[in-house]
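Worked example 2:
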Amino acid sequence: MKALQYRTIGSAPEVVEIPQPEPGPGQVVLKVTAAGVCHSDEFIMGLPEDQYIYGLPLTLGHEGTGIVHALGDGVQHLAVGDAVAVYGPWGCGRCHNCAEGKENYCTNAAAEGIQPPGLGSPGSMAEYMLIDDPRHLVPLGDLDPVQNVSLTDAGLTPYHAIKLSLAKLGAGTTAVVIGTGGLGHVGIQILRALSGATVIALDVNEEKLELARHVGAHTAILSNEAAVDTVRELTGGRGANAVFDFVGAQPTVDLAGKMVATEGDVSIVGIGGGTLPVGFGVIAYDAAVRTPYWGSRGELIEVLDLARSGHLSVEVETFSLDEAPRAYERLHEGSIRGRAVIVPNA
């Protein structure tokens, strides 16, 4: 079968032929219907050799949907032909957090070498994909897999972050979204669906701000030093009750720290490497700083339900598996509108 693999440190991913997987006991093989392209992939492919821990060759793709193709011995409650979405942050299934469906915070994964698909285990950018356990599959139902595959990360990650701050986002409050691309443009829609907050979006050019307005931001402004004063002005000097930084680079983290209100939240979701100093007099009084990661299995079900009810719509650009290397070039250029999606079996 064809797959997109990262094979050499520092080189671009390649489309190659590899054996089609067969399910062992308790495993499932999917015929992949869609796979999402993410900045996390670009991040790990940009790591130097002494920091790279994900194994080579690596089949990319941690956002995936598929049709059940084959079942291993002992698999119950699934049938060949079922449409499913892949829950990506795989854990041990035994620890306290996993028992609550929070495999994103599994306490045993690192010690046991458990890695998510596309981030250590073979991912979804292939014609077929091996799933280690049926608990990592969520029914997709009648949702369009290409339109909704990105919700498994680009929807689940902002949803998890925003839920942590919902108590602070009632009527009359303000939420700031920094970065309106793959995750941010979904985050704006989640804020509009779940909260009473006025949503202010920040990004680096007018095209990205237009997307933010299109998906529901009340105000969209350029992400620069002047944005701090603008947010303060729009909030009567108070600042934002919650700031969600979907970039995480040092300049955006600095902005987030400067515009958060007293008792507000800063959630650094992006993996741009920025850090935010915390201390008395350094940040607003009683402000909380979080670094959330992905989300729980139950939250993925909730995200898909939001899409099913019409509250979430992902802007996507589609590519064939052969075109997948170009999708990553476009991602690096910053020219993808919303989210890039690979369709391996088009």
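The chain has a mean pLDDT of 96. The domain at 156-290 is CATH 3.40.50.720 (Rossmann fold).
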